[in-house]
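[audit] Reproducing an earlier prediction to check determinism. Same input, same settings, fresh worker. If the tokens differ from the archived copy the diff job will pick it up downstream; this log only records the rerun itself.
[audit] input (341 residues):
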Amino acid sequence: MGDTRKHEGPDDDIAARIAAARAGLDPLHVPVMLDRIVELLAPALSHPGAVFVDGTLGLGGHSEALLKACPTARLVGVDRDTTALERSAKRLAPYADRTHFVHAVYSDIPRALDEAGAAEADAVLLDLGVSSPQLDETDRGFAYAHDAPLDMRMDRTQDLTAADVVNTYPVAELTRVLRTYGEERFASRIARAIERQRARAPIASTRELAELVRTAIPAATRRTGGHPAKRTFQGLRIEVNAELSILEHALPAAISRLAVGGRIAVLSYHSLEDRMTKRALAALSTDTTPADLPVPLPDRQPELRLLTRGAELPTDAEIEGNPRAQSARLRAAERVRAASR
């Protein structure tokens, strides 16, 4: 009699890994698009000694899932927030023999790999934007829904705070920050309102700033589009933490240390991040042989193969269970050729 048992293929193996990865996760802090991240990155982490770099470690949820799914993989966990590193080290203590933590911004992934004694990464994850703990800790000043000092520093060892930006930037520069990083169409009105207020007394709290923004925006606009201060807070946060300039350097830095067959996944939360990610991945997934040549040049062949068609979005079910996932956009790619020297 022939063997009638169901043979597991690659898809079955990944499904089993995802199920195992989800076991025991904190239901209050389920990472964004977790199943898809595991599905995309686990195949590159299946060999012994594979190195996974989580460039934005946060609470360590994605890392925990991948360490469970890939029992021979090693983690290099990077975060600029010392509190995040401390919490993740405790959470990932069961995997202490496979983890190495580095206090750094994610553009320093090459240094983090050097410190961990790893020449290359087999998988890299960048989960951009503000993390759940930073939003939940009211004294950090990221959320307009809570009254707190105007801080917004992801790395509390740095000097620049949101209060510095609000109270010292010239109006033209403040307008640029709100318009470019916050994508706020009333940036000029808000900046002028801030200038008038700070001339009387420094703006020190999130509640004061949120109310000022609300009154600066036309009443008809305030009725739709969520909290009126949302875009202003986004712009200030990006400026304080130099998020876009860091991302601009981080993408090529991470890709440069990606092994052939290695994969990178990037979760973005606004159009500016997603646009930069799209450009960086597309540039290296294109044949750049001059059009007038009859044959492709080997050193002009794509270095990356895109794993996602455009930007993938979270499902409606995930958004319902985790509203913070609503604005997420996921792009991923695999290195198929070593970089030209």
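[audit] rerun output stored. Observation attached for the diff report: The chain is about 40% helix and 15% strand.
[audit] end
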